[in-house]
Design a protein that fits this description.
The complex is a heterodimer of chains A (93) and B (282). Chain A has three helices and no strands. With 93 residues, chain A is mainly alpha-helical. In chain A, helix 2 packs antiparallel against helix 3 (74-92). The longest helix of chain A has 36 residues, at 2-37. In chain B, 72% of the residues lie in helices and 4% in strands. In chain B, strand 1 (148-152) and strand 2 form a beta hairpin. The chains are: A mainly alpha (93), B mainly alpha (282). The interface between A and B is large, with 46 and 46 residues.
Chain lengths: 93, 282
Amino acid sequence: MKERSDRSLGKLIQRTLQAGIGLCLTAFAIGFFLRMSGSDGAGSFLRAGAFLLIMTPAARVAMLAYGYGRAGEYRFAAASAAVLVLLFISVLL
Amino acid sequence: MPLPGDPNPLLLAPFGAAIGLIGSVLGVGGGIFVVPVLVLALGVPMHQAIAVSLAAIVAASSAVASVNVERGLANMRLGVTLEVTTAAGSICGALASGSISHRVLQITFALALFPVAAAMLLKSRSSGGTAAVPPAEGPEGPAGAMDSDFFDPSRDSRVPYRVRNLAPASILSFFAGGLSGLLGLGGGIIQVPVMTLVCGVPMKAAAATSNFLIGVSAAASAFIYFRRGYLDPDLAAPIVVGVLIGSFAGIKVLYRAPAGRIQAVFSVFVLAVAVKMLWTAL
């Protein structure tokens, strides 16, 4: 049971991290292309890529909180939620 | 803002790939290399270098964890538990970065690393980097919530292990997080020894779990640097792309190499970092 929920949570976390990396790389690729073609807006895409990258661990922690909460492992759901709160505080600082 | 020397992205990407490769095998972020190269070789201001280093750590952590959680190599329960104090330490470190002497910090940290390197080397010789504490099951009592196991291809068998001493490990993780914010390091150089020597986690699982959690501490600090405008995307983007490529290559090495050898290499790495930090500070 624990093994099955671990595997399913592992898949969820894997997809979340891959989505974050994919979005970041897409933004970087557009930014590089615009930079090489001399068009405006390259900096915005590169900045967006960097922001998406540093948001990825936060998304992963949110998914962990959701996954552990759904599996009834409230101790780890609470730990994930606490980490999310700390990340939110760091955004505000 | 244009940087002195206008670094070529085609040179920054291979540098990032090397950092990603080392980081994913050893469970460290590679910030110890990124910051000095950017500051000394490219003339990047210290705060910008730290911000890029933190972004590189987030990239390496995300890439490596995306594979290791699915393989069961990263212990997510242990990781998220240590993340609480690590993230708190990271925020404190980033906030205190202007008020603490980096020189004093580097000397203290370097001196603390020498016994860590020795202990890691001794353990790699005595146990081959595998678990010192097997899980208790059946008549000895139920396995703990964080106990786990993973398949090790170099041994062609599953390696079960029990996680112990969580309270001291959490306290030490706070300091690992603090270093992340203060020096732009991932904190893996502390997290891996904490997990292997204090918690009894085998080297491969410790490296994978360290990679899993250092992304959060680095992100917590990176948010602060990003908001303050220190993260230069033109500099960060090619390094991050290189780190991602190197990290995915390093995962294969971590999975297949003998744990004892990885642990021995890690101890040499810790020793090199200690000497380098002491040299820089003195």
